[in-house]
Amino acid sequence: MTLRQLPANLIIGAILVILVLGVALLSTIWTPYDHAALSISNKFQGPSFAHLLGTDQLGRDVVSQLMVAAGNSMVVAVTAVFIGGTIGTMLGLLASAKGGWVEDLVMRLSDLGFAFPALLFAIMLAAAFGPSLPNVVIAIAFINIPVFARVSRASANQIWTREYVFAARAAGLGKIAISRDHILPNIAAPVIVQATIEFALAILIEAALSYLGLGAQPPSPSWGRMLSEAQTLMYLAPQLAVYPGLAIVTAVLGFGLLGDGLRDISDPRLARER
Amino acid sequence: MIELKNMSVNLGIFSAVRGVDLVIKPGDRIGVVGESGCGKSMLALSIMGMVPDALSTVGSLIVDGQELIDAPESTWTAHRARTMSMIFQEPMAALNPLRRIGDIVAEPLLVHDGLGKSAARARVIDLFTEVGIPQPELRLRQYPHELSGGQRQRVLIALALACNPRLLIADEPTTALDANVALRITDLLVELAQERNMALLFISHDLGAVSRATRDILVMYGGDIVERGTTQQVLQEPAHPYTQGLIAARPQISQTATRRKRLPTIAGSVPALINLPKGCRFSGRCPRELAKCASTRPRAVTTDQGSTVMCHLFEGGTAQ
């Protein structure tokens, strides 16, 4: 497949994701200013060469804050989706391998997980255990477990009927060895696609929780909290709400499009139907 | 070594395999023939302990004096590869397309025999050489799609032989291969069985391959073993009307090319499991059917020639 044949959503998504990840990585080694440095005399500045996107109500550089916030957001999303995805995929593989009551139990528990709206559940956890980034990670990871359990079980059930799994059983491999060596590599594609889409949702949930004050605590910047702080200054400096909003849109759209694009190329039947 | 007594594979009240008695000893080479849907594969899977969950096996299946009919999966896992192993019909589908063939064959060695990586690799090279795969060191790193059909079947044979099983079940191993390659694979299986004093259960539609590969033969129809005996005896003097039909239905080049006669067939087709007749399962299709055939199940009787036939025609001792 040449570059030209790749679906447009994949290319646009990949560009946006690379942009966001690049900024996040850069923020770990360099930002124009210290993101937390106050300078009251410089507050509410408009865009200039010194401050590309101006400064906020406390005179902090907006670009620096957006960059560090991108890093925070990525760390939260990666860790949460990784933890939730690993546990969920393992549960799904287990359910598929064991069948019977184990499978029923895992699937009913995941139904239970789906019964709670994701954001509401995260708010509940954050309220119960206190607002902090690690708690946000735990909440998002927890929400992701049933999603991955479902995807991996459904894909794994298909693979279990393949003849090469039969041949592996005939060669004396147990269910765990077959799950590890034959099932997992073959369900990697749908799981990775799901992870990319869940990534977008994780960024959104992190922003929402921070907006509500349940996520990153000051002075650690977050797109969601920048948005909520700007809200009170809507008439004074509307641009301060636009920047973090655009950042969230860019990241969520990027991962969403990338996930869609990956699914299209991993399952050509879907792409042709559209 | 392996003994089946009155073993059946049931789906609810229906039997896919009905009351089979079979003893397999080291060095035995037993052919199983019959149309599709006669229970051949189900018989093979029951000996592997791999009957699908929806079906149940009843009766007795004894391996080395141990009753395995209701054994848990873990007991079977310990026996598979070492006591019995199996190769399949479709060599492309039976190899995971995402894994290198060297890794696939090394797996049972790592898991079952507890070999280290380099020891397993050396063993895989030996196995590849044994089953006639040229340049085994290079092949190790190839993926299934890079091999021809015959090579893939050889890889599967290597996989099945990895832990030195005492019984190899070959479920239509040559069906997906062209005639030349099929012949070579058949001969390879016989050679391996003889060298290793390994029992071979050879399931096939190809009567030619069966006569080449086996000493004894089971003819299955509708889950019953309708005729059994030495391969030579049964194929040369078939007693059961079904066996006679099977042998008559074999295409022969001279016949079709010169005389343009229609190939003889057995009328009708194998009935579905739920429609099988109560008595002799071949009743309804049998050209020599008696009045009692549809209602009474025939007993297995030994003919004067030494083969065992399950047919009312032979219940007096010889053909009536």
Would you kindly provide a written description of the structure presented here, covering whatever features stand out?
The complex is a heterodimer of chains A (274) and B (320). Chain A is mainly alpha-helical and 274 residues long. Chain A has one domain: MetI-like (MetI-like fold, Orthogonal Bundle), CATH 1.10.3720. In chain A, 74% of the residues lie in helices and 0% in strands. Chain A is built from ten helices and no strands. In chain A, helix 1 (8-29) crosses helix 2 and helix 2 runs antiparallel to helix 7. The longest helix of chain A has 37 residues, at 62-98. The relative contact order of chain A is 0.16. The model of chain A has no long low-confidence stretch (mean pLDDT 88). Chain B has 320 residues and is of the alpha/beta class. Chain B has a domain at 2-83 and 165-237: Rossmann fold (3-Layer(aba) Sandwich), CATH 3.40.50.300. Chain B has helices at 40-48, 73-79, 101-111, 117-130, 136-139, 149-161, 179-196, 207-213, 231-236, 241-248, 253-259; strands at residues 2-11, 14-24, 29-33, 56-63, 66-67, 84-87, 167-171, 199-203, 216-221, 224-230, 300-302, 308-310. In chain B, the strands form two sheets. An eight-stranded mixed β-sheet of chain B has the order 6-7-8-3-9-10-12-11, with helices on both faces. In chain B, a hairpin with a 2-residue loop joins strand 4 (56-63) and strand 5 (66-67). Chain B is globular. The mean pLDDT of chain B is 88. The chains are: A mainly alpha (274), B alpha/beta (320). The interface between A and B is medium-sized, with 19 and 34 residues.
